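Memo to structure team: turn this sequence into structure tokens by end of day. - J.P.
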Amino acid sequence: MSRTHHLQLPLDADAVRELAVGDMVMLSGDITISIGLPTHKRMVSELKAGNALPLDLHGGAFFHLSSYIRDTDAGPEALYMNPSTSTRYNPYMPDLIRLLGLRLVGGKGGLDMASVAAMKESGCAFLSFLGGGAPLLSEAIRGVVSTHWNEYISQFRLTTLRVEDLGPATVAIDAHGNSIYDDLKKKAEDKLPGILSELARQRQAASNP
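Reply from structure team:
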């Protein structure tokens, strides 16, 4: 039976390993977001060169969420958050998960098996955020903590936001390697022979009125 977890960031590996596929999560604390492919490539390059990133992401939460930050008299303001498709970042995520010891990653669409292996090693889970859920997700924003690599467009920057009850998000890949996407694929594969058989029957019926 799935559970709902109200989690306070940062998390340790033990807390993440308690999450199971299908569980729901509400997050409070600081998260870092970016949807920039150049940003991901740069992060990996810097880390492999032995250079520190401009913020400490070790053991943190890094999500593929888009946001636009505008400057106001009261300081920077995040106008929205909206999930992006995480599979675009498959080439970079295994290194980022391992090198940063990330505890939570997320977006839409999951990650590949290389990333899942890194998640099992590091104690990391993938959270699936509601596609098109920007109004709901944006309600959780409580402030902009920092932005880095500001030469990029707003959505590509390394932006850290403070959130309260961000979610609900679904644990789509847990730290034990279980994946909701594998379950869906298996169910689809199991149904495929029946679907093909029915289509063949319909074609046969149409050709013999």
